[in-house]
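Researcher: Go.
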Amino acid sequence: MLILPLFAVLFFFACKNDDDNTVFEELPEVDGLAISQSENDFNTTYNNVLTTLKQNDNIGIVAEVDHSSNAASVNLKLPNTRVILFGNPNLGTPLMQENQLAGLDLPQKILVYEQDGDVFAAYNSTGYLASRFNLAGMTLQQIENALSTIVTGATDVVPTIPDDETVDFNAGVVTVDSSKPFNATYSSLKAAIEANTNLKIVAELDHQANGESVGKAIRPTRLIVFGNSKLGTPLMQSKRTVAIDLPQKMLVWQDDAGITHISYNDPNYLVDRHDIEGNTEILNMISGALANLSNEAVSN
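Model: Structure:
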């Protein structure tokens, strides 16, 4: 079954009256992360997001990740933290036509989490995506408007985007060249993940097939989303916003010369982006595991 990458939302919401006296906590500042402090409780905020997505026939929900439940499954504690992955190939595919690596941050995600009694909703701004992958597509503003509208409707607060939401081109992207054809590389990567009992595959996306379903062509591009709650949870305990970048993802893609690559987010980049302190041993384990998986997948 095909799963859809980014979208257009047709629903608009009214913001809460600006005349109220609500006092908000200082919002976390993360490069390119648009965020609102909700005036609703956690379940209401999350369900508002989910309901809006489900009401739009153009949107495909790829996965719902309950980081708190995953933490509890390995005897760790994490306050309410959930991420929804969703999208629409009519808007996401044109970005990957510009740069296939954009598929590493697609489909789009909305994070809802609770911290010290406050509830927040966040997403990666399109300004962040544009800078990281050198994008200038016409769909960027449509996507930003839609994301802002969804989060505003869920929280009754217009999201705040950091003044400096730009990052360097290809920031934090690790790319490994494969000696195998595309399909063999992807199959080897999936087999390596499945062989590790500590890892769980959350979702698989065929960006090329999704694009073809709406008449838009891109070269072979597939994403696999997977995680290890024992390693991911401590990072979220340190800085909750890193949940927007978890579970981990690997993008398998074929360039215009026919060469296949595997790309993924450098854990140390995520540390810098979210200002995570400590967890050195865990970060080394994650970095080593990702390198081993990619090397095993690309080698004969």
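Model: The beta strands are 33-37, 60-66, 81-87, 108-115, 118-124, 173-177, 200-206, 221-227, 248-254, 260-265.
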